[in-house]
Amino acid sequence: MRTRALTALARRPQVSGGRIAGLTAAPGPWLAYGALVVLTSFLAAALPLAIQANEDRALRQTVSASHPSRSTLQLNDPQTGLGLPLPERESALGEAAVENTYHRVLENIPDLLKIDESQTSYGIRTSNTLAGLGPDLPRPDGLPPQFSVAAQAGLAEHATVREGHFPRAPGRATAVSAEIEAAITTDTAKEMGLRLGSVIPFAPMPQGHTLRVRITGVVEPRSPEESYWSAQEILWNPSLDIDESRPPREYWKAGLLIHPAAAPALLGTLGEPEAYWYLAPAPGAFTPQNLPALTDQIASLEGGPGLVGLRGVAGEDAVLATELDAMLSSHEAVASTVNAIVTVAVVSTGSVAVITLVIAAGILARRRDSEFALLRARGASLSTLGSRLLLESVVVVVPAAATGLLVAVRLIGESEAAIARAVTASGGVALLACTTLPVLVVTAHGRVRVHDERGDLADAKHSGRRTIVELTLLAFAVSAVATLRRSGTAGDSNLLAASAPVLISIVAAFLLTRSYPLPLRRLGRLAGRRRGLLGFLSLARVGRTGSSGTLPIMVLLIALTTASFGGAVLTAVAGARDQAALRTLGADARISAPVEDPVLPDSITRTVSAVPGVRVVAPVMVEEEVNVLLKKPAGGRRFPALIAVDPKSFSQFLRAGGSTGFPAGSLKSDANPDRPGVISAIASPGVAETLGHELQQVSTLAGIFTLRVTAIQTDTPVISSSEFLIVDSAALPEPATTTLLISGEDADGRALRKAVSAYGDAIDVRLRTEERGRYADSPLQSGAELIFASSLTAGSVFALTALSLSFLAASKERTSLLARLRTMGLTRRQARWLLVLEALPPAALAAVGGVLVGGPTIWALGPGLDLSHIAFAALPGSGPTELVSLAVDARSLCLPALAVVALSAATAAVQAWWAARAGTITELRAGDAR
Length: 930
What we know:
The protein is of the alpha+beta class. The protein is built from 32 helices and 21 strands. The radius of gyration is 39 Å and the shape is flat.
């Protein structure tokens, strides 16, 4: 019946119902192929969507999380209307004129710069602060407070009245107005002791006129962290400042809020009033695609055609200042570096997915090889075979690819900037999956065959064309490695450099498959001389495996190399963060006394020692500067820090952290036997050079004493300063503890804080784990890490799929072989071991190749990758700045390789168990083509 159906298909290729006969006759393999296409299409569509969503979220948080004083577009018109007659200048400072200019300014802002008008502030303010002369005003060091007066529009929408009322305007404010009303914030009232009815006279003008401000309202800001308030933080948050005298003296700076209609009265002060418009950008409008255009437009507003347009409406002397362009440029540079590293994993995973699809299509082609050979023998043309298979593929693949695309869009979300890339990637998967099977079949059946030709791996001969292809790939691999080592993964050569691990793996796979037959033949001869049966049979089976086994080895090599590379990246990032956190805190946990009361209670050490997870507690006293003037100041420090420790507990703390170089004996009291009462000290090299062996009297929180340097140490975990003195706390006149250094990675932070809270809420508790987490809390960084890890996981899944498919391709042949061998006396146990031993050589080849390729790949690519941005992107400009580079990680190299060998053995054992369940008669039916 099967023969008649095939004959009919060959004779009637024009019948449309027969064009998908192969699909309806054996739907199972096609459904599995469709499921693989769904997974591949989902991954291909999800990656660009996820990368775009991560970039959008990170960029918007960069803008929204920055301080408004940096992100706002600050347009000022210095001394507004200075050259106008006084009546006209008063009108120019009026409420209507400033508001009208505001709307005209918005019209001159480029379209890409969306402005959040709800957080935009504008009005009139004093460009110079005004000295308040009231007798009741606070004067810390005898200096009068300085006030910034602002007539800011929209106060009622951004504040709530707590006392009194919002400031009102006089009938008509002029430069000679005697008094105006003002409001202050609750923080200003609290810190400066101002209240309703307080009158603040300002310094008089040269002609004798004095303006007074009466406090008529106390308001509480709504969302003071937003741009309306924080663009000029002085308006709601008073602060102490210092003057330039010697010694410096403190004075208060605060803000006063008046009605916009009262702004002309500021002309009667020394404040030189000016109009301002602080435009808050809307973070939701920023996308990575328009960053270059945005940066250009901001530059134009700061000093180009855009500024000319603004001056035409705001005043000839108007200036615009902002740090938004610098923030965007910095973010773009960091994002470029981070995404370039992610691209390495994405390219590797995509390569594994593509090869897995090719392997799956090859299995489909081999399952129907006899069918196609019969069709060709009966006269079917290659175009007929190709079109028939293309139609079958389209029926399965197109819906499967569309399903993967829709699932990706539904789970991750649609992005206008990335949806086109997602559709293109999913379409590429569909095109590959549709065309691979016809191409493989047409290539294999280019000539009519009477019988299948053997393609033993042990006797495989390689054509000259394959040699040319291999040499070309080798040249590409060398070029990619050289490019990456020279310029990293960023720039125009990004894709070539990111393909370096894949190209290296492909070249290594070709090299391994070329050299594989030689040891295989020698091992086969050795096994043939031994009495055992299984070794010879397994090696003979491996040698007679088709030479098409290059693709599974290639997939495993790419996956293992990528896993090794990814593991090295993640290990380097985690190690860099851990070391940075350790350098910052100096311990697994650190407890510090508050600045107001810098001494910790004596009993707190025992309390902390009882907390679960705490191993060692070292009490120390830290004083940032002592009266020793350094000969060569380091890092801007002219005076060293003093550290007083208990030598016993401090040595235990250092040993718990892996350090054994602390010279505790140098702090003993008998280190200075010739001068009793002199305290021994361990000094940094700079301090030792300054003091030598001379005596030095120092004044500290622990009293006045004399010390002498008895040992030198280059660094200490207690402080980040490179210049210090370490003494024995027991030798001090008045010992004190300011800090507790705690060793114990498993210390419970919640229990620590609970134990310390009994001594006051102001005591600071910092954990190394929390400090480490600060380096990984930015969306750009954490999202990139997640995408990187997900890509590695997806690549591993595809590699395991390819491994399973390679076993599945020969499952029927293996089952028939076992059935025949069972009739010859092979036991079930021997059958299991035969399949396991047959699976081990290719798995071991891939594993050894993965280790041999992964290590050199990491070594070769390491100098071209700077992981600092992905490790410390959470703290741009302020985090650790050292170079974080790749290093070979033995665990990342060996564990994936061992997993491949174990999985191969387990899969072979399961297949042997399954084959043993089938009866011998079922497998060896007469006339069966298997």
